[in-house]
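agent: user wants the structure for Prolyl oligopeptidase family serine peptidase from Algicella marina. delegating to structure tool.
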Amino acid sequence: MADCSSVSAKSMHVPSLMLLLRFRRNRLALAYHDQGEAEKESAAMVARLIALLVLLFCAGGAVAETRVTLADGRSYLIAVPEGVKQPPLVVMLHGGGGNGAQSARSSGMTAPALRRGFAIAYPDGSGRSRMKTWNAGHCCARAALTRMDDVAFVLRVADDAARRFGTDRSNLFVAGMSNGGMLAERIAAERPREVRAVASVAGVLDLARIKPRGAVPVLHMHGTEDEMVPYAGGRGALGLTYAAAEDVLTAFLQAQRRGLTKTRKVIDQARDGMQTEKFTYASSSGRPEVVFYRIVGGGHAWPGGSRGRSTTRDINAPHEIFAFFKAHLRK
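agent: tool returned. relaying tokens verbatim.
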């Protein structure tokens, strides 16, 4: 029988469930030898149903995020790996018009986080509906118009998670998609000492208003055919103007204030009409400090995700992000 207890949440008591199912299976096996054909068929059917329930349980994910509401009413979801003392924390920021629960479902970040010993939090942006946004500078929507201090909010989530769940505050990582990626890069630019590394997919730093203040490891993924946040910069589909992705790359490279070795790798294993160019800027020790993925033909999409023809399968965003974050863990 399949065992999915290795990826579980404390509130679900997965090991206990698995023990119960194994006990039922063993009883059925013993009964099988002592019964007639009709009873054997019935026992076999029940065994198959139990196996199916386990498979459905595993497929549905044995992970349950816990929702936390802060004193100011803002909230986040969090999943914490079992048996890991002071796990590093990744704060995953949803795109504009999304929310934490939606990001937890669609990003595919929770399972790889727990498998690698990371805790992961999904905070909600601000807004009057379930369609939330972040203040990343000039974007986006109500959060930017009301000048919500979302940089402080994300750091408050990290502080709260350390206090409630024992995460390692000195090992904080931030990732985001689109508007969430913009905020991740804003945090890196404005509060470089607070984070170990950040990752942005299809979201650029607001260079017109914000400049990096110190060296922070940054991973950035961007499609050359992105219509929402154009790769070359300029006006996007919703009327906002953005910096060019490569200008943001240059700004973070300049903030490193040291010589880095550049390498280029072409990835085209999916044969999906797109091609990914991976540029790695490594320190003298070989550690990647800045990694930039130019997805030729890619759109405003999460690499490896399930939506749209402009979503490349050449790379998997969670896999690449966690490999990068792992390289920057404080020991």
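agent: one observation worth passing along. Residues 1-40, 49-62 have pLDDT under 50 and may be disordered.
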